[in-house]
Design brief:
Elements (H helix, E strand, L loop, with lengths): L2 E9 L3 H9 L1 H4 L7 E2 L8 E6 L2 E13 L3 E6 L2 E11 L2 E11 L3 H27 L9
Length: 140
């Protein structure tokens, strides 16, 4: 058994707008990295994410960026893929996958925690892009 997951969200905006909301540090900081993001998610870069509700720097090593299609990065020992699929002129399917964790109770707990976090990020992304709302503010 491999401990990994994938979450999806349909966002009613064009793929260019949805991709930019994840790639662009000012936009990402408006709904997710509420303590800031140091730079755009360009391949080969190491970006620092901060969260106002969770102290400490999170180092994100960007592995691949394909505009309007993919952002892949590593943090710690994990690898994350955020894929963007245009569904029509007005909608985008965002799929976020992460894994693999060791097959231990600690690995299982961490995978569940990260699955929760990426599901929450997807909801925050949808609220921000579709309605301009920072859903994360006051959430934790």
């Amino acid at each position: 058994m491999q401990l990994k997951f994938k979450v999806n969200a349909k966002i009613r905006k064009p793929v260019e707008e949805v991709f930019d909301a994840v790639y662009n540090p000012q936009k990402l900081s408006s709904y997710f990295t509420t303590g800031g993001a140091s730079a755009p998610l360009d391949a080969g870069q190491t970006v620092i994410w901060q969260f106002a509700d969770h102290p400490g720097d999170v180092e994100v090593k960007v592995e691949q960026t394909v505009p309007n299609r993919l952002i892949a990065f590593g943090w710690g020992e994990q690898h994350v893929r955020i894929e963007f699929e245009p569904l029509d002129n007005d909608s985008t399917l965002v799929s976020i996958s992460e894994g693999e964790w060791p097959e231990t109770q600690k690995g299982l707990d961490r995978s569940y925690g990260n699955c929760h976090g990426w599901t929450q990020m997807s909801c925050c992304l949808k609220a921000y892009v579709e309605h301009g709302i920072n859903l994360r503010q006051g959430f934790y």
